[in-house]
UniProtKB/TrEMBL annotation:
Any one GO molecular-function label of the UniProt entry: transmembrane signaling receptor activity
UniProt keyword Signal, yes or no: yes
Protein name: Neurotransmitter-gated ion-channel ligand-binding domain-containing protein
Gene Ontology CC: one annotated term: membrane
Parts of the chain that traverse the membrane: none
Top-level lineage group: Eukaryota
Keywords associated with the record: Signal
Annotated signal peptide: 1-16
Pfam families given in the database record: Neur_chan_LBD
Neurotransmitter-gated ion-channel ligand-binding domain mapped to chain residues: 52-189
Length: 189
């Protein structure tokens, strides 16, 4: 019990120092599972690099999901879109419809997501739920079904820092499966 009482302020100290100066990556991160007291585990958990990184990136002072993620607002944001065809489910000639199972791949740069991996346990890339980040409102305009819920199944976004390239921001990869029923003029002989 006595030793636990001594350990607790030590953990707090490490935590407080981390917030102000940020940890040196060559120091090993304390594994919270090694601690027996719940309070100690909770405190040490705050120091896990992945948790610190996610909270840092998404803190409300830094990131606003409603803002187009570009610092110079006069510049356009380029979204690279590619579609990988997985399966043609159905071709309906009388209705001039075709139903496709595809993987959508959207990539863009978010200038507000930025970190130095050396401050976060050398994490270069992380995964963040799509509903916590700005995402482009791209839409397949000749889709028969208008509702996104019926066609697209959004997934998490991979975020990779551009720190090592000496550039600002992060590159985002947004991949998700979709089943589109699209109209197109069919002329089958
Ligand atoms: C990190 O720690 C190592 C050894 O503890 C030291 O040599 C190095 O200079 C430190 N780096 C920074 C950026 O403080
Ligand atoms: C946690 O408990 C185990 C078993 O009771 C003990 O061996 C270990 O030293 C304890 N760890 C700490 C950090 O107190
Ligand atoms: C992150 O990238 C740097 C530079 O390319 C590399 O040295 C480091 O090992 C990478 N970190 C991880 C966890 O892969
Ligand atoms: C953006 O990148 C430039 C160099 O390309 C650097 O001088 C500047 O400090 C970076 N800005 C931020 C906010 O990281």
């Amino acid at each position: 019990m006595r030793s636990a009482g001594v350990l607790w302020p030590l953990v707090c100290l490490a935590l407080a120092r981390d917030v102000s100066i940020r940890s040196n990556s060559s120091e090993p991160t304390l594994d919270p599972r090694m601690l027996n007291e719940t309070a100690q585990r909770d405190a040490a958990m705050q120091n896990v690099p992945l948790i610190r990184l996610t909270r840092y990136l998404l803190s409300h002072d830094r990131y606003d999901i409603r803002v187009r993620p570009i610092i110079d607002h006069t510049k356009p944001l380029k979204v690279h879109i590619s579609i990988s065809l997985y399966q043609i489910i159905e071709v309906d000639e009388p209705a001039q419809n075709i139903r496709l199972n595809v993987w959508m791949i959207q990539k863009w740069r978010d200038e507000y997501l930025d970190w130095d991996p050396r401050e976060f346990g050398m994490i270069n890339s992380t995964i963040i739920p799509f509903n916590h980040l700005w995402i482009p409102d791209t839409y397949l305009y000749n889709s028969v079904k208008m509702s996104r819920d019926e066609t697209e199944r959004y997934m998490n976004i991979q975020v990779s820092t551009n720190h090592w390239k000496g550039e600002n921001g992060s590159d985002l990869s947004f991949l998700y499966p979709a089943i589109y029923t699209i109209t197109c003029r069919l002329n089958i002989r």
